[in-house]
Amino acid sequence: MAEVETAQSRQADLPRKTEAAGPRKAEARAAGPLAEAISIMARLRAPGGCPWDREQNFDTIKRYTLEETYEVFDAIERRAWPDLKDELGDLLLQVLFYAQMASEEGYFDIADVAANLNAKLVRRHPHVFPVDGKLVDATDADAVLRNWDEIKRGEKRAAGETGSVSALDAIPRSMPAVMEAGKLGSKAAKAGFDWPDVEGLFAKMLEEIAELKVELVRREEKKQARIEEELGDLLFTAVNLARHLKVDAESALRGSNAKFRTRFGAMEKSAGGFDALAALTPAELDALWNRAKRENDAKQKMPTGNKPDSSEADGLKA
Fold first, then answer.
1. What is the DSSP string of 149-191?
2. DSSP code string of 207-270
3. Of the residues 134, 169, 207, 288, which has the fewest C-beta atoms closer than 10 A?
4. How would CATH label the architecture of 170-244?
């Protein structure tokens, strides 16, 4: 608690500049609605509240958190800003729900969540919030990430978290596999265990493809497990190729999924529906696909705005 109070006091002692007028206005506007949202969540969980909300627990709610997160991704990719506002509200509801349940169990409440976040943000940005009256040097994003990681390691040492078998233990096994693969590669790279350049990854991809082909022709009853293993190695290498290319693999795959949806939908429309499409020959299907590709490529416009920068995708992670 002393650490939290120290970080908060440093933040409070910072001089208020004129450019902070915008954030102060936003704080004032948000205070009332946020307080009301907290109150509504408490009412829903209270005796006489909503039966469904009252029946929920941490395990029943967690799947909705993942769903809401992907709906936020979808709104961003569609550049649907009104939808994003709604989806962020739904994601905020998840935070309020967890905090309310934790408060009921006596673990913590939403004020503790916010105070802990505030202290962490101040503590991990010593290049913005002075420590002992001095700013830490961080002239670029890479320096910020290095400072962030060092501060995070210091926090773990201070908390007595020295018993981890591996640095990779900090990466949850429960996260989506594509994200996990990227973070594993990124963490290992910080110890110097990485391909020196992208050409090495292209060579590794060809090696993994060759190994997969070998397993495909084996005459074994239980070869499926080996095929799965080799395909997994190929996918892991592809994700790390994306990391070297500074491409977020998850976003890239989601983009390809969306492109396939659009083109296949155009094929269905041209054919007169799915059943009609299924009755076509392979050559006819190829012709429709190529037509859909040409038409949609001509219409496609690169979205403007804030695109995710995967070079920092494994950066400021709590």
1. HHHHHHHHHHTT----S-GGGGS-TTS-HHHHHHHHHHHHHTT
2. HHHHHHHHHHT---TT-HHHHHHHHHHHHHHHHHHHHHTT--HHHHHHHHHHHHHHHHHHHHHH
3. 134
4. Orthogonal Bundle (1.10)
Whether the Cβ atoms of residue 71 and residue 90 lie closer than 8 Å to each other: yes
- Residue 5's pLDDT is 41
Least confident of 108-117, 146-155, 300-309: 300-309
Which of 214, 212, 216, 255 minimizes the C-alpha distance to 236? Answer: 212
Total Cβ atoms within 10 A of residue 279: 10
Residue of higher predicted confidence among 311 and 39: 39
Angstrom distance (rounded) from CA 152 to CA 123? 10
Distance from the Cα of residue 100 to its chain's centroid:
24
Sign of CA dihedral 306, 307, 311, 317: positive
> Which pair of structure tokens corresponds to residue 83?
């939808």
CA atoms of 96 and 100, how far apart (whole Å): 6
Task: Please tell me the pTM assigned to this model.
Answer: 0.60
Please, which residues have CB within 8 angstroms of residue 58's CB and are 6 or more apart in sequence? 98, 101
Q: Where in the chain is the domain with CATH 1.10.287.1080?
A: 2-13+23-123, 170-244
CATH fit for domain 2-13+23-123, picks 1.20.1510.10, 3.10.20.740, 1.10.287.1080, 1.10.10.10: 1.10.287.1080
Q: What pLDDT digit, counting tens, does each position of 176-188 carry?
A: 899 999 999 999 9
| Three-state helix/strand/coil letters over 266-302 | HHHHHHCCHHHHHCCCHHHHHHHHHHHHHHHHHHCCC
- Helix then strand then coil, in percent of the chain rounded to 5, is 70, 0, 30
